């Protein structure tokens, strides 16, 4: 068992429970004898390169407890892509602080960072254990049933579409349509979650667009027209990363980040929701609105779920347990256990970091309807235990009274 210090960081976009995973790592690591001190990197790997680390040895326990449910990324985040020239400086810092345990909370790119840092350190004589803690509202990490942060963000989307659908239904003589955009570069898990809003007489959303399904303008406008004729208004939900058959983003953004990912909310581009709004207005002459909440889905602590908080903490705790057992080069995963008819429960597993870094997890075909504009019962069975029960609102009868 290695004796030395631990280093923990956060990277990429936040979730409403990412700080709870941080708490799980901190509380578990601080109680572990082989781990002598725990350091946090400010603004991800940039904190290592800039020698800006936080020593948690003297941090008040009450402050740490307060991390549970605190939105944002308490240590600060980063999207710096490590280049070959960075590694000697990173290794120098790891040796300076005697870092033997390395934890990071993040998504695909974060897992790649852990993998590369631990590999480089080992090749240069510095033994170190690295374990990743999953995080992303996109829910697109390979090898896990879902990611901490997704359930709360999914509930945010479902609640927003539920309440926005009520508004749109009542305002249909003013606005004939509404477009709600979720985050999600290449996977449709969050727009799909909007389907959980239906029920108790509420029909929204009527059209859901997924990055996994090629966007076809004429087919889209046709299904929009039919929904408006049937319901008197149409509620549309889209993922920010929807693309046409040629792979061109509907948002038409050409701005890319340091990992070569399209930045859908970047300056110089438009949002997918804005483009859809323009298409519908130009085609039918209807008045409508679009709703682009951007990072609010990623930090809405007021809609954070207890299930999500508990699982996020448990993932952080499991990462330390694995590391102390000598397991390195893996990410913590969650898998559903028991039969499909049993109450929801999860167990923990692992997946090699390299597999997570090199794969994404799109929505499976059996979760998307054949026409590409809705979800299936299989998705609802998957999602509803995560999203939880939604409020029941009153919907007045639409029948005309008789004198």
Structure at a glance:
With 403 residues, this protein is an alpha/beta fold. It has helices at residues 18-30, 45-49, 61-65, 87-96, 108-123, 150-170, 189-193, 217-231, 272-284, 306-324, 353-357, 377-387; strands at residues 4-10, 35-41, 53-55, 99-106, 129-134, 177-182, 207-209, 234-239, 288-292, 330-336, 346-352. The chain folds into two domains: 4-136 and 302-357, Rossmann fold, CATH 3.40.50; 150-300 and 362-387, Rossmann fold, CATH 3.40.50.
How can the largest sheet be summarized? 7 strands, mixed
Task: Compute the CA-based radius of gyration.
Answer: 23 Å
CATH architecture verdict of the largest domain: 3-Layer(aba) Sandwich
Shape: elongated
User: How many beta-strand runs?
Assistant: 11
**What is the number of helices?**
12
How far is the first residue's CA from the last residue's CA? 84 Å
Low-confidence stretches: 264-269
* Strand order in the sheet with the most strands: 3-2-1-4-5-10-11
Q: Helical residue percent?
A: 25-40%
Derived from helix and strand composition plus strand pairing, the structural class reads alpha/beta
CATH class of the largest domain: Alpha Beta
Mean pLDDT rating: 92
- Strand fraction band? 15-25%
- Classify the fold: give the CATH topology of the largest domain: Rossmann fold
Please give the domain count: 2
Order of helices and strands: EHEHEHHEHEHEHEHEHEHEEHH
Describe this structure in words.
By secondary structure, the protein is an alpha/beta fold. It folds into two domains: 189 residues, 3-Layer(aba) Sandwich (Rossmann fold); 177 residues, Rossmann fold (3-Layer(aba) Sandwich). The strands form two sheets. It has a seven-stranded mixed sheet, with helices on both faces. Strands 7-8-6-9 form a four-stranded parallel sheet, sandwiched between helices. α1 links the parallel β1 and β2. α1 runs parallel beside α10 and α8 packs across α9. The radius of gyration is 23 Å and the shape is elongated. It holds the Pfam family PFK. Keywords: Cytoplasm, Glycolysis, Kinase, Magnesium, Metal-binding, Transferase. Pathway: Carbohydrate degradation; glycolysis; D-glyceraldehyde 3-phosphate and glycerone phosphate from D-glucose: step 3/4. Homodimer. Belongs to the phosphofructokinase type A (PFKA) family. PPi-dependent PFK group II subfamily. Clade 'B2' sub-subfamily.
């Amino acid at each position: 068992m290695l004796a030395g210090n631990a280093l923990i960081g956060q990277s990429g976009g936040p979730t409403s429970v990412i700080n709870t995973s941080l708490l799980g790592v901190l509380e578990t690591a601080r109680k572990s004898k082989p781990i002598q001190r725990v350091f946090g990197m400010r603004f991800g790997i940039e904190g290592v390169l800039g020698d800006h680390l936080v020593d948690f040895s003297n941090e008040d326990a009450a402050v740490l407890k307060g991390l549970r449910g605190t939105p944002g990324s308490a240590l600060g985040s980063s999207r710096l892509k490590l280049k070959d020239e960075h590694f000697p400086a990173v290794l120098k810092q790891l040796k300076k602080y005697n870092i033997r345990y390395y934890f990071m909370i993040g998504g695909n790119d974060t897992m790649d960072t852990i993998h590369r840092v631990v590999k480089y350190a080992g090749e240069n004589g510095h033994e170190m254990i690295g374990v990743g803690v999953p995080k992303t509202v996109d829910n697109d990490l390979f090898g896990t049933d879902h990611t901490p942060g997704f359930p709360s963000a999914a509930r945010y989307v479902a609640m927003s579409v539920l309440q926005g659908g009520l508004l749109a239904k009542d305002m249909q003589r003013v606005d004939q349509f509404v477009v709600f955009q979720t985050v999600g570069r290449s996977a449709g898990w969050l727009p799909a979650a909007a389907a959980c809003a239906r029920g108790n007489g509420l029909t929204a959303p009527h059209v859901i667009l997924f990055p996994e399904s090629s966007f076809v303008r004429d087919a889209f406008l046709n299904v929009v027209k039919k929904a408006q004729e049937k319901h008197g208004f149409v509620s549309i939900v889209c993922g920010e990363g929807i693309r046409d058959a040629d792979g061109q983003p509907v948002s038409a953004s050409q701005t890319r980040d340091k990992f070569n990912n399209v930045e859908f909310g970047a300056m110089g581009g438009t949002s997918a929701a804005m483009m859809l709004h323009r298409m519908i207005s130009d085609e039918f002459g209807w008045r409508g609105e679009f709703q682009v909440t951007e990072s609010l889905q990623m930090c809405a602590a007021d809609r954070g779920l207890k299930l999500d908080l508990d699982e996020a903490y448990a993932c952080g705790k499991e990462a330390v347990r694995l590391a102390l057992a000598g397991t390195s080069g893996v990410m913590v995963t969650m898998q559903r256990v028991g039969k499909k008819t049993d109450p929801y429960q999860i167990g923990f597993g692992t997946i090699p970091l390299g597999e997570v870094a090199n794969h994404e997890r799109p929505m499976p075909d059996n979760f998307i309807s054949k026409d590409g504009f809705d979800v299936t019962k299989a998705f609802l069975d998957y999602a509803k235990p995560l999203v939880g029960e939604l409020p029941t609102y009153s919907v007045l009868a639409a029948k005309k009274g008789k004198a």
